[in-house]
Amino acid sequence: MASSTKYIFITGGVTSSLGKGIIAASLAKLLQSRGFSVTIQKFDPYLNIDPGTLNPYEHGECYVTEDGAETDLDLGHYERFLNTPTSQDNNVTTGRIYNNVITKERKGEYLGKTVQVIPHITDEIKRNFFKLGEDGKYDVVITEIGGCVGDIESLPFIEAVRQAKWDIGANNSLVIHLTLIPYLAAAKELKTKPTQHSVKQLLEAGIQPDILVCRTEYHLPQEVKKKLALFCNVQLNCVIEAMDAETIYDVPLLMKKEKLDERVMSKLKLTSKSNTDLEQWKDFLGRFKNPTQEVTIGLIGKYVSLPDSYKSIIEAFVHAGAACECKVHLKLISSEELHPETVEKKLEELDGILVAPGFGERGLEGKIETVKFARENNIPFFGICLGMQVAVIEFARNVLGHVKANSTEMDAETPSPFIALMEEQKNLEQMGGTMRLGSYSCDLKKGSKAAQAYGKPKVQERHRHRYEFNNKYLEEMESAGMIASGINPDSKLVEIIEIKNHPWFIGTQFHPEYKSTVLNPHPLFVKFISATIDNKKNK
Ligand code: GLN
Predict the structure, then answer these.
(1) Residue nearest to atom 3 of ligand 1 (CA)
(2) Is position 42 annotated in a ligand binding site?
(3) Does the annotation flag 153 for ligand binding?
(4) Are residues 409 and 514 in the same domain?
(5) Is 358 in the pocket of ligand 1 (CB under 6 A)?
(6) Bridging pattern class, strands 211-216 and 173-180
(7) Are 273 and 310 within one domain?
(8) 180: annotated binding-site residue?
């Protein structure tokens, strides 16, 4: 453990979904703006080794890092706020901890000892707490503990935080507890009792929180803050109000106003390394809140009843929309509702269409109808991963005349497998962590719309798929006007397709949304929005 690194732990109480990830990211942003190098990691209390095998309905989007880790969607917030990449080490689950311990046990590394939750599991958790701080790269490591205090599942994590505080020593660590102050309309009162109980639970586990961050719909009057300070045993100025915000991107500024960063620095004996500079952030917020135009874009997918399934895409539209000073009204539309008879009625209002990533056959035919509608009516189209594959299948069926064209994922017996399983996927037995994951290079074709958007000949983008474009059909496809404008230089895998004679029709095998951040809106999203603005003007 690098002694100069400071460790901040964020726990949650009262209810889930309070936005620990946003508070962690906002605090990190504020510390970053003071010149500190900061990273955030998330510890999740479930038994899956990672969320890669989870249905999006269970856990929202699976976020993919540069190094190909399938992670919790909070890591997306960390990257979008901090503009720095995370890695496999930034997301650890109970499953991974147990897996590591049991693997060591099988190797005989515990030398005949009885392997137990304390100390072996807690030691392994602590080893992971400290891992990112080891090489001195970070001044501050923020650790978000998933779940709520009091959950049976998070007990070992909470116990490890208690122990870690001793290992790290005074002034080098602190605990922030995020909690809810509900408002009872009938009594016209903000209630502190749930927070008192939740802090008591932390105290029972041997942890005194240093700072309380209180989510609330109304301002906390001074007497409520005093009551919280008194009963929860924290300093009055360490009771921080976190009012509901108009957008998550307001939260760093709200936390700055509440002096969260100052309290943290004073407790950790840190002094700013540079002057606070949030100018670019404020500039983004200014553009985001004062759009000069608006467009409506349809996001066609099958997990639309849980928008968190498309978190990074939704946020990428926020970043790129601000860059274009354009309010993007994103309409989530279930592909299962789209049939040849309904497609026009459901999509005619849209200025642009995005077909989302996904797996399996359900809703596929609706996506194909959607692509056809966008292609034939010159509506700006953006297909991501499965969305790109569907664009190819539609083109194969309706332009090239391969009426049964398909992906072998949907129809193993198709006579025209335009999308097929990658060679290296063929003999895999395990599902977890075995897709083509993470960052790979892509060479862009000169003069293509993709090359124009990026403004450079070579890019790196992140992936999560098993199937690919079947190069057997490349010539036939290109001669009919759908070109491969991005290709992986090593495997020749088609990374981007576009239609030449269309205002803007692009499909990417990779996921550009994972790399979009507040300060670096993704060029393909920016150009897509510009195209939808033009389309709207020309209507
Ligand atoms: N199901 C497709 C594949 O595995 C697409 C994956 C995705 O959209 N992320 O290739």
Answers:
(1) 465
(2) no
(3) yes
(4) yes
(5) yes
(6) parallel
(7) no
(8) no
- Given this model, what pLDDT does residue 2 score? 45
- What separation in Å is there between the alpha carbon of 465 and the centre of ligand 1? 4
Distances (CA, A) of 411 to 408, 421, 436: 5, 11, 21
**pTM of model > 0.90:** yes
pLDDT of residue 384: 98
**Domain end position, chosen among 258, 282, 306:** 282
pLDDT tens for each residue of 264-323: 999 999 999 987 779 999 999 999 999 999 999 999 999 999 999 999 999 999 999 999
The residue contributing the CA closest to ligand 1 atom 5 is: 386
Q: Please report whether residue 460 resides in a domain.
A: no
CATH of the domain at 320: 3.40.50.880
User: Is 218 found in the same domain as 241?
Assistant: yes
Same-domain check for residues 246 and 391 = no
Structural domain harbouring 40: 6-282
Instruction: Verify that 368 and 273 share a domain, yes or no.
Output: no
Averaged over 358-377, what is the pLDDT? 95
> What's the rounded Cα separation, in Å, for the pair 122 and 129?
10
- Domain co-membership, 319 together with 403: yes
CB of 467 shorter than 6 A to ligand 1 = yes
Closest CA to 469 of 381, 370, 393: 393
**Hey, what amino acid is at 374?**
A
Q: Which of 228, 263, 282 is the last residue of a domain?
A: 282
Q: Domain tally for the chain?
A: 2
Six-digit token string for 193: 């009792």
Tell me how far apart the alpha carbons of residues 444 and 388 are, in angstroms, rounded to a whole number. Answer: 16
Return the best residue to mutate from 62, 408, 425, 466 for the ligand 1 pocket (most ligand atoms within 8 A of CB). Answer: 466
Is any atom of ligand 1 closer than 6 Å to the C-beta of 34? no
Beta strands 38-44 and 91-93, pairing class: parallel
Which two tokens mark 385?
A: 């991963």
Q: Does the CB atom of residue 464 touch ligand 1 within 6 A?
A: yes
CATH number, domain with residue 234: 3.40.50.300
Same domain assignment for residues 67 and 44:
yes
Q: What is the pLDDT of residues 490-525, one digit of tens each?
A: 999 999 999 999 999 999 999 999 999 999 999 999
Strand partners, 353: 298, 381
State residue 3's pLDDT score: 60
